[in-house]
Every structure is written in C-alpha cells, then in structure tokens.
Amino acid sequence: MLPKSNIVYFDMCGIVGYIGSRDAFPILVKGLKRLEYRGYDSAGVALLSETNQLNVYKVKGKVSGLEEYVEGKDISGTIGIAHTRWATHGEPSQTNAHPHLSASGQLALIHNGIIENYTVLKEKLQKKGYTFKSSTDTEVLIQLIGYIKESGNFDLLTAVRLALKEVIGAYAIAVIDKNNPDEVIVARKSSPLVIGIGENEFFIASDATPIIEYTDQVVYLEDEDIAILRRGEPLKVVDFSNVELNLEVKTTELNLGQLEKGGFPHFMLKEIIEQPDCLKDCMRGRLRVQENEVILSAIIDHKDQLIQAKRFIIIACGTSWHAGLIGRQLLENFCRIPVQVEYASEFRYSNPVVGEGDVVIAISQSGETADTLAAVELARQKGAFIYGICNAVGSSIPRSTHTGSYIHVGPEIGVASTKAFTGQVTVLALLALTLAQVKGTISGEELKEILKELEVLPEKMKKALDANEQIAFLSKIFTYAHNFIYLGRGYNYPVALEGALKLKEISYIHAEGYPAAEMKHGPIALIDAEMPVVVIATRNSLYEKLLSNVQEIKARKGRAIAIVSEGDKTISGIADYSIELPETLEALDPLITTIPLQLMAYHIAVCKGKDVDHNPGIWQSQ
Fold it and tell me: Would you report the helix, strand and coil content of the chain in percent, each value rounded to 5?
C-alpha cells in the first residue's frame, strides 16, 4: 500500500505507549531507552494514575534525567504514553518536550512528524481564545483535538478523526483522555507506528524494539489508519470515515538478544564485529556454490520486468546511497545495463524522467526513510517497477514496492550504519550476479570464481577485524585532527565516501571523500603536515594510480594512512601508516575495505569522549 501523500518526513523522535494490567512507567522508560539510538534532546511521560490523575513529567536531556526527575512523584498507573523529542519547532526545553496537554488538561498527546499547516490551525484556535505554552506544532494538534471534542461533545476517537482531516503533514500520534482511563487512540501518516498485542494488553512504539521483550505479535499501521486500544477488548483499526479495517497481525523476527550489547562497550563496535556472521545470514539460501548459481526469489518471480528493463535507477540516502554507488558498478559491469544513482531527497523534487520500462531500486536500512518512501511513491505513480532492499521486516518500503530483498543482518541499534552497509552491498552483488546469469552476460567461470570468493568472504572479514587493536592505537594519534580526506578509486571510491561519513557522524570531525584522481583538482591544496589522508590502495587494477596519489600526498608532507593488501611493500613503504587486509576480488573489495574505516571512526570517537551510539541532540552543546 502506497503512502497517500507525497509529504513525508523522517524524524528521530521516539514513541512508546502501554495499556494493560502492569505498571506502565517501567515499561515506558525501558522502551524509551531502547529508542535512544535515534537521538533526542528531551524526554517525557504522561500517566493516568491510580487516583485518576493525569500526571505529565518532562525534562530537557536524557531519559536518565527523566528517571531522576520523577523520584518521589506519583508514577502509578497502568496506562501511559512516553516520548523522546528531537527539536523541530522550538528549541530543546522542558516546555517544548512531549507529551503536550489540551487547554482543559484532560488530554495528553505525543507526536512524531511535522504538521505542515500548524500556523494556520494555530491562528484559528487563537481567534477562538486559545493560548499556547510551547513553540511546537504538536501542541497545536492536541489543542485542535481538544477544541473539536469539547465543542461538538464528541468522544476521543471522533475528535481525533475530525482533527486529522484538517491536518496537512506527517504524524504518528498517541492520545489519552483523563476521563477515559481504559483507552488509547493512535494514528499514523507517513511516520512509522507499530502496535504490540499481548495478553489483555497493548504496546505502542515507533518501531518494534521496545515491544519484543513483551510480545512478538505486532500490527504495523498503514497511512491514515486510526487504532483504538481499549482495555479488555480486541484491537480495532478504522479509517478516517470510521470504517473498520482488517488487521494483519505479524510475528516479528527480532529477539531480545539482538538488542543487548553482549559485553561490548557500544552497539557500534558490536555491530562492526558481527559483520562476518551477518554476511553469512545475508547469503544463506541464496548462494549455491556447488550448483554455480545465485537464487533470489524476487528475480525468479519478476524475471520479465527485470531483464527487460531499459535502465535501473537506484534511490537512497546517506550510507544506503554509498551502497547504491557500488551497486551501480556491479550491475553495469556484470549485467551491461545503464544504472544511475540518485539521492532520494533530490529525486523526489526534481521532476525526474522515469516511467514504464524503468526499474527503481530503493535502498533503506529501516525501510522508513521518508525521502526514499516519497521517491518510491513518485516513481511508482509514473509507472516504474520498484525493487526494495531493506533490513527491517514489515517496514513501509517493503510494503510499498513490487518486490525486493531483505538483507537479514539483524537490528542496527548504533546510530551509525555499519553492518547494514555491508549487507546492502552483498544483496546488490547477489542481485547483479542473478540478473547476469539470466541475461547471459557473465561466463560460468567468472561466476564460479565470484561465488567461491563470496563463500570465504566472512572468514576474510574476520581477519580484517584483527586490525582492531592497531586501529585503536592509530586513532589515539589522530584524535587531534580537525579535518580528514579519504581517497579511493573504482569500487573503493564509495567506500571513501562512507569512511568520511562515518567519521563525521560519530566523531564530529570534518571529513571529505574523493575519487583519488580528483585530488589534484582542488583538494590537493588542503594537504599539509596537519592533514591526515586515508587512501584505500588495495592491490587491484588501479593500484599504480593510487601509488601516484600517495606519492603526491607525501610530497606535500601529508599524513598518509594507507589501506593495503596483505604483503604490500610498495605503498606501505611510502605511507606513514598502513593497515593490511586480506586480498579479495576487486568487485568485492568494499566488503573488506570498509571495516578498518568503520573501526577508525569508532575509536577516534571513543578517544574524543563521544557518545557513539546516539545522535548528539542537545548533549553536544552541553
């Protein structure tokens, strides 16, 4: 089912809710902690107490601060909603934090997303005498719901339905009413929301991670769904016209062990170390070395659309876009079909030339990336065939595409994508090889060589991880740096971009990735004794070219860190530092060369005292 609007937003906020027989507060707080990886600047909770009081507690800062704030306060109750906010409207503050109350104080609401027309709605309410305490669009929405409820003497469900009909924008919301302690109303449009179904209890969250400790039975709401969670009654979902909809209850594949650090100091390190096993999971059942073939059911089921495609268009954001750049080379080299790679955020606004005969490959770890979702909707409306590559089972992109492949690397809790990147590259390689088999654009011998290498690649990844201690030592040397340059060529150019992105988002050091041949066209002016330059220079068809780049760096007294193949003497003899990696086929090189760059970003961030598992939120300015 496609989103009904092309206005889609991605927010880092987290939603948790509960109604049942247990104490709500511990469940809500634990759920917020499960969502801390999203990044946030404030946290809050609303509880209907045992004495039927609506208690709202909010803090600027971390969930741990919320726990301290409520000490000695009434946190009783078996129904409640909670939220972590990433500021969009109004600065991070206790006042702007969620939940927000209606003017009467009877209703409380939490909200992910952005209400586009909130200023218009606010002005209408102000003319009716309403005043506002916060700068948020969310307070406008709860005031609107409260106004409709009171002026029309409606129940909460009707008030929410009517209010949302006036809203332009995106939302995932949960609303509770002091006068009805047995009900929670939730709704979504273009912002994910999942409901967990337990024994006479319901759980609400923006993704399944806070829920799986209690139940594996979940319902993913679709756009413009409104769910009614009533104590002692089955879950009910209606549309804006109050027509009841059929429910599709799914069993989530997540397990609690995947959400724990397992003895590692950070999720990011755990997820980097997990990559060899993730690669096996990604290829399991798909790689058939003895039969010299790759099996992807999506291609078997939709062979005609894929092999007759005029071109492929890959749309993605961030790390997924870097994986797409590698996918372009794989598809063009093995399938001999033109491929272009677009930022989803640009594609959706560019009036793209796309239509029947085009295959659009949408890549997203979460399956909820808003720009990618909007681009998928646009491409499908124009007649393109949509292929999704995602990690999160049951997420929005798999539900919005014609077919696709999951990467099966398990939940990614750390804010920096690591194992999802290698999983995406692996699936793109399998996709390219499968299509090449069908199209006859790859020889049996070449296919056999690649499949055999894929089979042993997890062990080579483990060997690459042996460089961890060396990289930890190097990271102490380069913690001082204010800028980095990353250089790569061919398949490793996108790896250079990804390495720079990882350093930026985890250590907050400015870094840029370039095609190595472009260094002389501008970036070379930046190189001096204070500029670390990471060069991905493994032994491949462009090795001699990269050797020249390293020589140019040293001629300008740059600090060269070379990523080289085992046994390399030439570049290692010139660079200031070198990290040796197992040698693999050139097309598969990114699966190995990305590992030391992930580790370098991680260790530099740790040396700088950064919270590597979370987006910075307000904490960076404190």
Answer: 40, 20, 40
